[in-house]
Amino acid sequence: MRIYLSVIFLLWFSFYANSQPGLKYRGGMLLHTGYLKNTGQTNNLSGACFGIGGQLTFTPRDHFRLGVEGYTSNISYKAQDGYFKLGWGGLLLGYQLGHKRIHAVISFTLGGGKVNDMQFIEVSANDNVIDRVLYRKYAVMLASPSLSAEYSLKSKLILVMKLDYLMPLFSSYNAYYAYGPRLYLGVLFNRQAD
């Protein structure tokens, strides 16, 4: 069902972009780092996360942006070899403040994703003994308010620095979910439809 909705959404955007002369769209890749933590479990997770992702937005009206974005964030448990990996994406709604060479963008993303959370409970140095591992794989619905600064190098090239805060809305494992702020750096390519 999610694949069908995604395809319909992208087709609608492509038809809408082709029907609107002068409609701008921009897209690109962003690297990020941040601080994620969780509470309520025996092996608390806190520390720096790293990841990559991208966004594609359209400007149907002056200053307003509508699009999609998706990222993956990875963090390792400090006391063991376990990891927490979040892959997520969603619909982005934004508002650009001004049209100067440097401008701010306020945006909000609502979406969902999947978490892979693996914790080693007992690790044996002996290769003949089985390690005890706790592995959770679960879906999560997320909200992410963000503020970004964009610098136009050229008419078609934009440098981006973005700060967001990742918050879980619904999940069967809310106590185990890692949340927190992330800082993004990346490049967006700006185009105008013919």
Radius of gyration, CA atoms, in whole angstroms: 19 Å
CATH class: Mainly Beta
Low-confidence stretches: none
Q: Strands of the largest sheet, in order across it? A: 1-2-3-4-5-6-7-8
Instruction: Compute the average pLDDT.
Output: 82
Task: Please report the number of helical segments.
Answer: 1
How would you describe what is shown here?
The protein is mostly beta strands and 194 residues long. It has 1 helix and 8 strands, in the order αββββββββ. It has one helix at 2-19; strands at 24-37, 46-59, 64-76, 83-97, 102-122, 132-154, 157-171, 180-192. It has an 8-stranded antiparallel barrel with strand order 1-2-3-4-5-6-7-8.
Based on the model shown, name its key terms.
194 residues, mainly beta, Porin, 1 helix, 9% helix, 66% strand
The gist of it:
This protein has a single domain (2-192), classed as Porin (Beta Barrel).
Summarize the topology:
Blueprint: H1 2-19, E1 24-37, E2 46-59, E3 64-76, E4 83-97, E5 102-122, E6 132-154, E7 157-171, E8 180-192
Antiparallel strand pairs: 1-2, 1-8, 2-3, 3-4, 4-5, 5-6, 6-7, 7-8
